[in-house]
Design a protein that fits this description.
- It is elongated, with a radius of gyration of 25 Å.
- The protein starts with about 25 loop residues before the first strand and ends in an 11-residue tail after the last strand.
- The strands form three sheets. Strands 1-4-5-2 form a four-stranded mixed sheet. It has a two-stranded antiparallel ribbon with strand order 3-6.
- With about 160 residues, it is of the alpha+beta class.
């Protein structure tokens, strides 16, 4: 005996009347001044700050043709208030140094005879070393710095 079909396909939007939606919704290009997305905040070097969640929804392109229904698609955006945003925090020198040490550990080949620091993260979890040490594939000299006699391997 066949299984009964589900009433809703996976990924299909749940239909809710726009008048019953919890947050106001705006189409793209019709957003009032003072409401922006997280991506727009990031481009302005701001963080959400004192925003306690979205105050409105930015409808997806598909729902722009359906004015009576609320947008429930995953491509919708959430709008935050611009007046509550604050400038991004600037990391301290100690934090930058710690991040540089962590990146140095990911970018430096651990093989004692190699010790090169590449400009990209190495596949240390899978290979354990750089490609040149693994299978002899020559590396472009523009992609790494040769090990020096200095004891530290920090970029700065």
């Amino acid at each position: 005996m066949p299984r009964p079909r589900k009433s809703r396909r996976r990924g299909e939007a749940v239909r809710v009347l726009r008048s019953a939606a919890l947050l106001p919704e705006y189409d793209r290009g019709a957003v009032p001044a003072g409401l922006v997305t997280r991506r727009a905040l990031r481009s302005m070097n701001l963080s959400p700050g004192r925003n306690r969640g979205p105050v409105a929804i930015l409808r997806c392109g598909l729902c722009a043709t359906r004015p009576n229904w609320s947008c429930r698609h995953p491509t919708r955006g959430f709008l935050l208030r611009l007046d509550l945003a604050v400038p991004k925090r600037v990391p301290t020198l100690a934090q930058e140094w710690a991040l540089d040490r962590a990146m140095s550990a990911r970018q430096t080949c651990p093989v004692a005879t190699c010790g090169r620091r590449y400009v990209y993260a190495l596949p240390l979890r899978t290979l354990g070393c750089c490609l040149e040490c693994w299978d002899g594939t020559p590396a472009d000299p523009a992609n790494y710095t040769a090990p020096t006699a200095a004891s530290h391997r920090l970029a700065a």
